Amino acid sequence: SEALLEMMDADVKHLAVIGEGGGVTGIITNSDILAAQEQSPFFIIQEINGASTMEEIIHVQCRLPRLVRNMIRGGAQSRVITTLISKISDAIVTKLIGFAMDRLGPAPTSFVFMALGSEGRLEQTLKTDQDNAIMFEDVPEALIEQVKVYFLKLGVQVCTWLDEAGYAFCKGNVMAQNPHWCQPVSKWKSFFKTWIRVSTPKDLMEAAIFFDFRGAWGNMNLIDDLRRYLFDALAGWTRFFRDLATGALGFRPPTGIFRKFVLETKGPHRNQLDLKRAMTPVVDFARIYALHHGISETNTQDRLFHLNLKKVFNKVDYNELDLAYNHLMQQRLLCQIHGIENGEPPGNFINPKTLSRFDQTLLKEIFKRIESVQRRMNLDFTGGIR
Asked: DSSP letter at 74?
């Protein structure tokens, strides 16, 4: 699986096999891997790229759970799996934008389709909804409404097709089909500036979603420009980081007195643990420190890696937190696969009693570690007032 990810990142079909002496001992091709696997991300993406109808895309996307199940059983790390899920999503977005532009005609100016939230972090799982937006180049004032009409039509069409393909509409309407999130570069910079300098609870919630942005398709220079602006705008605004950290500290690991699990007390998930919510403190921690230290990566584990390189925390702390996050994501993916195999929609809730005693103890140790990094974040950004 790691070899597949390397090939996809580099857009190549061959990898050299290096021996202990440093010399090339062989060549592995994507054909070799295809022959060794019943399903391959390469094959799925090739099918998406070759699709000419929505029906073909839906058919291919429906095979994703089986691919993930096979990768988990093959011992693939959760980071590899979520990245591949996200790359498949990107391939679908690319194809759908092509379909939309065939209907609407060429874009009136350069633009980028932005991935946000978990997709922006390359951390999509089998249960995900849409978080996306459109950013286009600034145009003369006389043309802005006409240009925006085109991109809004494109956003509506792409988001509708994504919903048909299994990527549910965002309940908060954070999508490119929302006129508010289909804007020129200057407007996006204005949004970012307001969120940082005003930082109301709504601003902070939107910052947590949008500051994990990356380009899924289009002019990546626009993404680079917006990211440079973001870091320039953040410089010196300590209150924003204090407010962001204060909000993040509201998400506590689900353990209580005597280190017992804190479970849902009512509803369909009574006596269950929300794994997605349990992971949120690590995502928030990595985001806040990455923004504070000018790290452009959006993936949580990439952020932790670069924070370690910058000596923001030591290697032991980095390794523990990275392993903790990887384990939680692995449990979450397993939970979703089990749900699908039982004929249920993929979810994020587990009953800890179904875990072995070892896994229960490991979860409690992970939550203890998360509490430790939250204490540090509290001291670093709020002065330990919480």
From this structure: T
